[in-house]
Amino acid sequence: MDAVASEEAIAAGWAALGARPAVAEKALELDFEISVMAARSPAGEVRSYPSARNHHEQQILAWSVLPSGIDSELEERAQGIARGIVSALGLEGLVCVEMFVTKQGELLVNELAPRPHNSYHQSERACATSQFEQLVRTTCNLPLGETEILTPAAIVNLLGDVWLNASGGRPDFAAALKVPGVRLHFYEKKEARAARKMGHLSASGATADEALGRVLEAYGRL
Fold first, then answer.
1. Is the terminal CB of the chain with fewer CB neighbours within 10 Å at N or C?
2. How far is CA 172 from CA 63, 110, 127, 203, in A?
3. What is the model's pTM?
4. Strand partners, 36
5. pLDDT tens digits, residue range 68-105?
């Protein structure tokens, strides 16, 4: 149902739903989404990664870039939220905390994913310790690895639609890989289906904008 703009519209909106029990949510002016990956070992050591900026299409992550480019004050708040959650839960492993940033600069937790996350696949290229190595370290109760960004990096997801829409079902990966700094990653899934994540392209760059520009250019060549 569309948002209601006044108290007078509430009764009409409820009637339109059949006067059934319903949940009303406050309409928010969302600007964009970020995520912060946090790790905690059984020994209680906690580390978090710089935030990633995420872009969704049809409610599916289309691309993500590290670093997110948000200001230092917002970054500090996001880090505090992620570290606070992983510590309060006593979680051993990883948790990706997805957060909406509103037009007013609020941070609102959207989702918790207690696992390696799509929005940090580029950590394999960008960070001193990838999310995958960090998970192994938490599992084995080893000292957690450094999480600083060594080079900006970005990913764009490859959905099954890329194959379904390509001529002869063969995307032009050779053309994509001609873009400097681009790599191709497959998830070893046999059947391409619409909206199914089959892999991703990643790219590094001197800046986050350059990395994102490269990976989007490569995607456009498919």
1. N
2. 19, 36, 29, 17
3. 0.91
4. 97
5. 999 999 999 999 999 999 999 999 999 999 999 999 99
